[in-house]
Design goal:
The structure holds 2 protein chains of 2 kinds. By secondary structure, chain A is of the alpha+beta class. Chain A is built from 20 helices and 23 strands. Classes of the chains: A alpha+beta, B alpha/beta. The interface between A and B is large, with 54 and 54 residues.
């Protein structure tokens, strides 16, 4: 167990939440996700040069690789603005209002005049090569269970294009998400355990949902976290979509960074200095008859093999201070960014088809002793040097401990290298959008729209609808909280049943592999209306949902027909109960009221799905009581 | 940059008192907060009630002067020192290309500190911003004008034409002219006539998305123009721009047949009533139009750079007031290009003024506002009436090209009759006697 306080773990959260607005931020398109594309175009982005003459090295590398970007678009969700073929339209004031309401709820200080900025982003996720972003408020604080967390900035910005795939030579995006308004809230870094950090993210998410102006569902909220420990640099983990991954990721990052610090102190102990890391040598000839498939293939493709001596690193490339944390692995992730498949290092050799004799000649050539390690890279002549330079830098960084970089989450709660962290943000004004003053009148109007705190909204679910605390939270956190209220007001169905269906039932259907995103609000309302009107029973409802989700039918009504659900009238039910009671008079005589459960089972076998079980119980209980009286 | 660009009224007063100028680090105190940031220039038509600063995180915000308690200058601005990346080496045996800039920024650098965009105009700037150029040509860059496209004038066409003559004399193998896109079609037509005998390719080029953004079309267009200028087998005046939304193909349009047909798209420029003469994919030039005048080695050629600006382009529409024609007659104009309806018509109520124009010695010629297609004035009564009045049908010529051509014809003729005869003759590909089966022929 890591002592988080002791290692000085600090985490800053940055939450990006899509807003539910009618239109996108700078055009009149609607937000509409679809994988049907009717338009394709190809672009190349060029790193722009700043007055300082500097170009982002990672951006320059991508450009040098000549990576093309393919953009796929759907006519409904994208227009010429997304294609960067038309200047942006006026800023969407509905989105501005939503962002301001969030700012007011966080007691943040709203700026007097909004200025749209262009933040250079060159990976292709923005067709323009920049993201439009606006600071709407500064400061403020978020109340959470245990403490108040300071807010740094609140901004309104356009979402990026959705990455479809990254391939050799080109990258593919689709434009549906591009330009969807996002509110970005940056919290000040705080100390705390991974669980406490997750709790903060949860509170902020709930505050946002309480405004009822934000989009819901997977991908509509994304967290970036900045993690650091004492003595190390800040590592940014970008794009965490699932809240419950946050604590795992923080935990992993803390152990990873701690592991790197351990490697650093070992290197320090051994007296390794940055200048000990020299230049690579070309060693292709050693491997001309190699049995290592990877190296052989690279040479066959006219590639070369490079080796780098790492003085004093022996054992430290494969050393695993914590599970899955190895310097060798970090280096392998790094070269993948620069287009190679991986590295070989001395701590794992011989192996992979590399023989002892090859290692011996390599060691001789590199003049390594037993204290030293070495790294082998094989790849194309024109790009292998980028990888080697990155390895040399990474080895020097190992002497410092934790390098400054951008990582991404893995589905199992770990992190992997994405790219070197870009230099300071390159921002300049978006001159196509004039500044927008925020009037006192607008703020007065919006102050009235600041929502009740989420704690009260959840409490309302408990008191007004009789939900348990847990179910109330579940519904509130789900994408269906507003729908829940609509259905609860439109039908007489028990609210807890509605809530449980919209959360637990749908989640289990989703886990069973059904795509619950194809469910329309209209369909769900109709489903509960059918229940309310007695067309189906509670027991049959999940079955109806399942048939509907299988896509075999087009409407709830058809699903009911397909299942052959014919509900039983009160008269029919009485008749069935009567028949069973008559057949089992002996049993009733013998067991009295305890005969109930056996008889209930028999009746339910006949009527299951066609009538509410609770109702059967009431009718049966009455009838048994009467029979007992008669028999007496 | 002047000291307090864009500020006026109360904000200007407040800033003056603090002695701050643009780029300085200032501190502003309001009852709500204390801000520190770099003083930014003000958007020119914005109100006088806000001061704009750039915060340390790079964002700009505006602070209402009515809330400000104090403004203090903390320190002077730090001028960014431009540390250029290493200059790419250029092979001295590459073809010599002259880049003449007239306005519109084809290449630029951004000052992220103040948001200012500085044009890259010298040859070395261009090599730095678009390093690929060094593989294709030995570049020489010259700034002739720095004007917005809409401020282009016939007298500048003359200067550009004379500059081209000088460059040809100096042995350049090709010429690139950077131009704002709004009136690039007019200039390309003007140069097509003035330089109708030019021995090398002259490529006009612009950009539809500003060059400070990573997605700009400027660099690819510029590379394309340099490739055409240095390598094309043909001579003449052309416009080189994107042929579609993608950054993969450029179209080379004949200078007299090209028109800006969209306000903002990269492929706004289209050949009208003609195919592009060539396409450019990567560094490959694919010639489409046969029999273009070939590139020649001569260093001297005749330039006819005069334009008589007393020519008007008049669009007819329902309820058009013929006094508009009368106005030009009174003002002493020498020619009118009509943009008529359909096959080339204006209403009968214009006849009287058109007759008057003819009697006063003006040339009147007809183009169509349909843009696509040819005028044919023998089909309807009105057309025949107009022909009888001496209105010259201009076939499939673009109205804008016709305007420029008439200015040129009058500027380079000794008589009206000579000018009329020039109008009827195909000088620089402005008339195509065959109409392609496709409405927008691609090849």
């Amino acid at each position: 167990m890591i002592d988080y306080k002791g290692i000085g773990l600090k985490v800053g959260l940055e939450i990006h939440q899509q807003l539910a607005t009618k239109n996108k931020l700078f055009c009149h398109c609607e937000e509409f996700q679809s994988d049907e594309f009717d338009f394709l175009f190809i672009r190349r982005l060029r790193p722009t040069q700043s007055e300082l003459g500097q170009v982002d090295p990672a951006a320059m590398f991508e450009f040098k690789k000549g990576k093309m970007i393919k953009y796929h678009a759907n006519r409904r969700s994208s227009c010429l603005v997304e294609a960067d073929e038309e200047p942006p339209h006026d800023l969407n004031m509905e989105a501005v209002e939503s962002a301001l309401i969030v700012a007011l709820a966080l007691k943040s200080k709203i700026v007097d005049e909004l200025h749209t900025m262009r933040k250079i982003v060159i990976d292709g996720s923005n067709t323009t090569g920049f993201q439009r972003t606006i600071i709407v408020a500064l400061g403020g604080s978020l109340k959470t269970k245990n403490r108040d967390v300071a807010v740094q900035t609140i901004s309104l910005e356009e979402d990026a294009a959705r990455l479809l795939g990254d391939h050799e030579g080109y990258r593919e995006y689709c434009l549906d998400r591009l330009c969807v308004p996002l509110v970005e809230i940056a919290l000040a870094p705080v100390e705390g355990s991974p669980e406490e950090i997750q709790e903060i993210a949860l509170s902020l998410g709930r505050l946002l949902r309480a405004t009822r102006r934000v989009a819901r569902g997977l991908g509509t909220i994304r967290q970036d976290i900045n993690v650091s420990i004492k003595g190390g640099k800040i590592v940014e983990v970008k794009g965490i979509q699932k809240l419950d991954l946050i604590s795992k990721i923080v935990e992993f990052e803390a152990s990873r960074q701690l592991g790197l610090m351990k490697i650093k102190s070992e290197l320090e102990k051994r007296g390794v200095r940055p200048e000990d890391i020299g230049s690579p040598l070309e060693v292709t000839k050693i491997f001309k008859d190699t049995e290592c498939e990877l190296i052989r293939k690279a040479i066959e493709k006219d590639g070369i093999v490079l080796a780098l001596k790492l003085k004093g690193f022996s054992g430290l490339l494969g050393y695993e201070p914590y599970p899955d944390i190895r310097l060798g692995k970090e280096m392998a992730e790094l070269v993948r960014f620069y287009g190679l498949g991986g590295i070989f290092h001395s701590d794992e050799l011989p192996g992979y088809g590399i023989k002892m004799s090859e290692i011996e000649s390599l060691k001789k050539m590199l003049e390594t002793s037993d204290e030293d390690a070495f790294i082998i890279l094989a790849g194309p002549k024109d790009s292998i040097f980028d990888s080697m330079m990155a390895i040399i830098e990474r080895a020097k960084d190992a002497l410092q401990g934790v390098p400054y970089e951008t990582r991404g989450p893995t589905p199992d709660g770990k992190t992997k290298f994405i790219r070197p962290r870009p230099g300071p943000a390159r921002m300049y004004p978006e001159t196509d959008i004039p500044p927008i003053p925020i009037t006192k009148e607008l703020l007065l109007k919006l102050e009235k729209e600041v929502p009740k705190p989420w704690e009260e909204q959840i409490e309302d679910y408990v008191s007004k609808y009789g939900l348990s605390q847990k179910l109330a939270q579940k519904v509130f956190d789900s994408e269906f909280s507003e729908l829940f209220e609509v259905i609860a007001s439109k039908t007489k169905v028990q609210p807890s049943f509605i809530a449980a269906t919209l959360t637990e039932t749908l989640v289990s259907l989703s886990r069973a592999g059904f795509d619950i995103n194809c469910l329309d609000e209209k369909d769900l309302i109709e489903l509960f209306l059918s229940l309310d009107e007695g067309k189906i029973s509670k027991e049959a409802l999940p079955q109806v949902l399942e048939v509907f989700l299988k896509g075999e039918v087009k409407s709830v009504e058809d699903a009911i027909k397909k299942l052959g659900i014919v509900t039983i009238s009160d008269d029919e039910l009485s008749q069935i109960v009567e028949e069973i009671v008559q057949e089992n008079k002996e049993l009733i005589k013998e067991k009295g009221e305890r005969s109930f459960s056996i008889l209930m089972g028999k009746i339910m076998n006949i009527v299951r799905g066609r009538v509410d079980g609770a109702k059967v119980g009431i009718v049966l209980k009455k009838r048994i009581e009467n029979v007992i009286k008669e028999q007496a | 940059m002047s000291e307090l660009t864009g500020y006026k009224g109360s904000s200007l007063e407040l800033l003056k008192k603090s002695n701050a100028s643009i780029g300085d680090l200032i501190e502003i105190v309001t009852p709500k907060m204390k801000y520190e940031g770099i003083l930014m220039p003000r958007y020119e038509y914005a109100d006088d009630l806000h001061i704009v600063i750039k915060l340390s995180n790079g964002y700009n915000i505006g602070i209402d002067v009515r809330n400000i308690q104090s403004v203090k200058r903390v320190s002077g601005g730090v001028k960014p020192h431009f540390a250029p990346p290493p200059m790419p080496s250029v092979n001295p045996n590459l073809p010599k290309v002259s880049i003449i800039s007239t306005g519109g920024t084809i290449a630029s650098r951004v000052d992220y500190r103040t948001g200012a965009v500085h044009p890259a105009l010298s040859a070395s700037d261009l090599y730095l911003v678009v390093p690929e150029l060094s593989q294709y040509a030995l570049i020489d860059a010259e700034v002739l004008f720095s004007i917005y496209s809409e401020n282009m004038k016939a007298e500048y066409w003359r200067e550009i034409a004379l500059k081209v003559k000088e460059k040809v004399k100096n042995g350049y193998q090709g010429i690139v002219i950077t131009h704002g896109t709004d009136t690039m079609g007019y200039t390309s037509a003007a140069l097509s006539f003035a330089l109708s005998n030019v021995p090398i390719p002259v490529a006009l080029v612009g950009s539809q998305r500003s060059s400070d953004r990573p997605s700009s079309d400027a660099a690819l267009n510029l590379i394309g123009a340099v490739l055409v200028a240095s390598r094309a087998s043909f001579s003449g005046v052309y416009v080189v721009m994107h042929s579609g939304m993608s950054d993969d193909t450029l179209a080379v349009h004949l200078g007299t047949k090209v028109r800006k047909n969209h306000t903002s798209r990269r492929d706004a420029f289209e050949s009208v009533n003609a195919t592009p003469v060539a396409y450019l994919r990567g560094t490959e030039i694919e010639n489409i139009t046969p029999n273009l005048p070939p590139r020649r080695d001569d260093k001297d050629f005749d330039v006819k750079p005069n334009f008589d600006t007393r020519v008007a382009l008049v669009k007819f529409y329902p309820n058009f007031d013929p006094d508009v024609i009368g106005y030009f007659i009174e003002k002493g104009y020498r020619g009118i290009v009509l943009e008529g309806t359909g096959l080339g018509h204006v209403s009968k109520y214009c006849y009287e003024k058109l007759k008057e124009a003819k009697d006063r010695g003006l040339i009147v010629a007809m183009t169509s506002q349909c843009i696509w297609g040819r005028v044919r004035m023998t089909v309807y009564d009105t057309g025949r009436d107009l022909l009888n009045m001496g209105v010259i049908p201009l076939e499939d010529m673009l109205p804008e090209t016709a305007l420029v051509k008439m200015m040129w014809a009058l500027g380079n003729s000794d008589s009206i009759e000579e000018a009329k005869s020039l109008m009827r003759r195909n000088i620089a590909g402005e008339i195509n006697y065959r109409s392609d089966l496709e409405k927008r022929p691609i090849r």
